Amino acid sequence: RRRHHCRVCGEVCCARCAPKRLDASTGRSQRTCERCGPPRVNLSLARQQPPPSAHSSPLSASASGPSTPSTSPSPFAGGGGGLTPPVADSHGPGGGGGGGGMSHAALLEVYIEDALHRLALCWYGLRAASIGLTLLLLATAFVHAAGWRGRAAVAATAAGLVPLRPFVLRYYRIVWLCAVVSWRVGCASLAVRGRSAAAADALWEMTHRVNARFVYDTVASLGGFWVKLAQATSVSSALPEVYKLELAQLQDAMPADDLPSVHRLLEAELGPEWRSSVKLYDGPPLGSATIAQVHRARLRVVREGGRVEEVEGVVKVQHRHVERSLLIDIGASQIVALLASFAFPHLFQDMRVVVKDLSVLTRAELDFRIEAQSQATARELLAASELGGAVFVPEVFPALATRRVLGMEYVQGENIKEVRRRGASELEVTRIVTALVDAFSLTMHGEIFNCDPHPGNLLVETATGRLAVLDWGQARRLSPAERTAYTRLFMAVAMEDTLLMREACADLGAPQSDFAGPPDPMPNTMVGTLRFLLRDTKQAAQARGDFEQLEAILRQVKGGADADVQISGGVEEICRGALLPFTKTVNLLFEVASSLDVSLPLLQRLISSGYAALLAASPFDVAAELREQLHGPPRFVLAPPLPPAAPRPPPGSLAASAEASLLALHAEGRLLGAQLCVLDASSGGVIADIGIGHTSYLTPHAVTSQTAFNLRDISKLFVAAAVLRLIEEGGGGGGGGGGG
Description:
By secondary structure, this protein is α+β, with helices and mostly antiparallel strands. About 50% of the residues lie in helices and about 10% in strands. It is built from 23 helices and 18 strands. Strands 5, 6, 7, 8, 10 and 11 form a 6-stranded antiparallel beta sheet that branches. A 4-stranded mixed beta sheet has the order 9-15-14-12. α2 crosses α5, α13 packs parallel to α20 and α14 runs antiparallel to α15. It starts with a strand and ends in an 8-residue tail after the last helix. About 35% of the residues are buried.
């Protein structure tokens, strides 16, 4: 019989002992064993429920994951067993509702399960046919082989295929996933032709619901690298809501390994006496993600001076065979990369390099010793800053850090998205998201930053309201030169400066072409793409509308294949090599903030810490108030005003009024520098001659009335105006002769 993992305790059961049953409170099906979970409604009984009323639609049911129960500390249990887990009060997110509402959810679930059952039958049929065809070919080759040498070669080939079976099946499963989704979308496109708008919307809704559940089931069963891709995709505003709801479960609700397997791994990593330093709580893990699962435990740690202390903590344990699965998936991911390039040629020309670079980031998570070092560095960085009271990183215990096991402090809290669901005020949610962005503004210009800030790695502490940043497996360490390069990259995006973009990319090891070569539009495209990624956060619906509008514009771009290559090339350039961690991080920050309906000037807040540090290290004279601001909270006012130059214009004069207006605009960050000269038209006398602000963001010299500016193309305006004036005067003079 087929084996399954219980989604709650992780125990391996057969399909009969761990069936998929409908949760009456959520309307979702979940595979659990008989011991776990509240009483559920079996799908076979749901089929017998009465149909919905005529004025209701089965599409009105919402799909949402179960809420995470809150826990409270429990006493330590002695003896040879584990710890008694804290008692949790489970409350469904929405209540069962009336009979009609339950019927809609049940009918919708029945439709999805029936469709998935048919797809499963097709999958097993294809597998059986493939195996049968392979055996037939081998048997035919064996019969027709010449002599014993030929038959021995066929037998050796057959024996060599046996260890390759898991690899081939994973590849085959990915091809099957892509084929099914593409086929169902194509069929839906044909089915909606000639139908009313309401009927077309219903057909698309059902198609996406089945596809989303099918993608979730497939990715969850594959695990490894595919879950990493799904986690990053689950927060994208470009994805339909039904896919986001399904894939969001992959952030911390992956199938878990059973406890005996966890005990064996702990013994292998920590030694036979591991129970003397780790006492696991009984019950399911706190969470299970791509690489590992987390169990609550009592940890015996050694403090400074040799003092031994027992603390509440968690143990992160790597899944079995996850490393082997990742290596297989890295190769199979090229198939998805080719599919993305085919489906979105206006965005991606060749995604294989991008996926390969992303796989390098994922592979770095396999060694928890590196993660422990990164987490300790980030904890010190945030604790020493003024953000330490709002954002923190859990403490790690070096004695419990091995290649596949990591012990750290326990944080009692809730997922950042649960804050919005429990009805927190707009002020509280905005405070949390602002602290998150400001923390990354600090770390992205510091020694290390987290490249994977998806909601599953962001926890709000219950007691203090502080934000905890978890999972430092994907972290980027920055040298002093790279920190400066990242700041210059932010500055290039803010100022739309392609020259500065080239310099920053060269410092990061991703050089672009220079003016010595042929014209290259790539930097302009990169700046535009990064400005889109770093746009102000907004409500989720508006963010999705931005992406739809952008995609529609790109599809209508004229200019032939060369224009498409220029655009897609620019998108790929910011998603590869040294720029990939930067792009991935800022995109996830935007999606997290937008999913919580928080509006923030993302680029301004992310650039603040780096720009202040860049000016502090510059040799140019900077105002005293700027020096004081560098030690305050992040604020984005490029080059605050210098003390006004003497002599000051007389109070109440036009010059004084104009100077005050310009200084106010400069203080708000809306004006870098300005010169203003007002002349008396009748006498030609000077009424006002003002210079305020700075000459440049990166070289902030004070602007005076004597400062010379390179007007570039603006100078052509004055020349053209002067020529036209001369022509006008010549024409008005009546008879001006030939050419001049």
